[in-house]
Inverse folding.
């Protein structure tokens, strides 16, 4: 299959583009507070969302393997639409119970999505196309995000907060319609004499040196994103960046992220291992620099490129995860195994965030330095292991 073919817009791309059209994203917190939700209640809702994802992640993965990847993608879109419809009515009615129900439904939707798209792409496309196709799909979602961010001000000025929510409900419904057009995946038959582990044995099988290294690297990428996404505003304001520049900077790094697909296509032709190690180590250097620098120019420059630098190894590791599942003989439990990977990543995140919570009382620069240093070290050690 030619790369030009997989880069053509298909139903999966269109679905992700529509998912990226979240018109209320810039004022997600304000939607709750304007409806009477206190900060204490807001954090309770976020905790509930995280709890639902935690307890439903692996059961959702096991369900996906039985229900089918395409069918689960459709179900995920239905649940996502239901969550956004609940958010719309919760805002109109100023109802905390509806906000609570929305958090539960959204958590289930996220769990159904976890690993499903990765498993679908790996099953439906030749292995050498996986990384490029995943980057292409993500670019479609990013393009949707860029359009929704640009149109946010216009919609808000004409139809206020209700208009932002209603527009997102409409695009979510269209996502359901488009998802039905996604081709059904090729069914993987169970091996009669394969290694069909119990869930407990499957967990134990993942405690291998290489697999733990993969989980650790994915955790670093996830933590890097969390640090940048949550602390970038404070960092930029501290450097003297004006608040009205924030949206432009967000749009800027989103546009830069669109180059991931072409960069990965070039890297694949040259070979992944060396360039993977370089991108991982450079990401670490950039994280440290972002924490240390206090001048507007360098900080904005780093902010524009760090998300792209974190994306590159992330896509490659997605392919590596699926190859590990093949090596374990768990092709018919691909979604469930990917869910276990994701839960393991969440555990690493929790450990780091608790540590960061204590360290940040001294200086947030230490948080960036810690994760950046680990990324540099890991990048240098994994040069020939990906």
């Amino acid at each position: 299959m030619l790369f030009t073919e997989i880069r053509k817009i298909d139903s999966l791309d269109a679905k992700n583009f529509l998912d990226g059209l979240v018109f209320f994203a810039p004022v997600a917190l304000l939607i709750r507070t304007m409806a009477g939700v206190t900060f204490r209640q807001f954090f309770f809702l976020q905790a509930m969302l995280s709890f639902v994802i935690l307890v439903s992640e692996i059961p959702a993965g096991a369900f996906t393997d039985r229900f089918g990847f395409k069918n689960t993608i459709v179900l995920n879109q239905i649940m996502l639409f239901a969550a956004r419809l609940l958010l719309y009515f919760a805002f109109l009615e100023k109802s905390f119970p509806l906000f609570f129900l929305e958090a539960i439904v959204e958590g289930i939707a996220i769990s159904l999505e976890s690993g499903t798209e990765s498993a679908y792409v790996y099953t439906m496309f030749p292995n050498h196309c996986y990384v490029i196709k995943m980057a292409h799909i993500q670019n479609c979602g990013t393009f949707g995000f860029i359009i929704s961010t640009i149109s946010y001000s216009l919609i808000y000025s004409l139809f206020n907060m209700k208009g932002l929510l209603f527009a997102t409900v409409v695009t979510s419904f269209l996502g359901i319609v488009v998802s039905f057009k996604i081709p059904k995946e090729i069914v993987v038959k169970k091996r009669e004499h394969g290694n069909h582990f119990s869930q407990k044995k499957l967990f134990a099988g993942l405690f291998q040196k290489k697999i733990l290294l993969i989980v650790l690297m994915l955790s670093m990428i996830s933590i890097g994103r969390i640090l940048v996404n949550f602390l970038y505003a404070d960092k930029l304001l501290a450097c003297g960046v004006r608040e009205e520049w924030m949206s432009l900077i967000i749009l800027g790094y989103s546009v830069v992220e669109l180059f991931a697909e072409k960069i990965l296509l070039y890297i694949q032709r040259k070979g992944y291992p060396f360039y993977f190690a370089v991108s991982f180590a450079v990401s670490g250097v950039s994280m440290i620099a972002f924490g240390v620098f206090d001048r507007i120019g360098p900080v904005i420059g780093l902010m524009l490129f760090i998300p792209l630098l974190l994306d590159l190894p992330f896509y490659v590791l997605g392919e590596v995860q699926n190859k590990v599942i093949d090596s374990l003989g768990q092709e018919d439990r691909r979604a469930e195994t990917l869910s276990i990977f994701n839960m393991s990543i969440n555990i690493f995140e929790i450990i780091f965030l608790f540590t960061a919570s204590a360290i940040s009382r001294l200086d947030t620069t230490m948080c960036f330095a810690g994760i950046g240093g680990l990324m540099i070290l890991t990048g240098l050690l994994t040069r020939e292991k990906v």
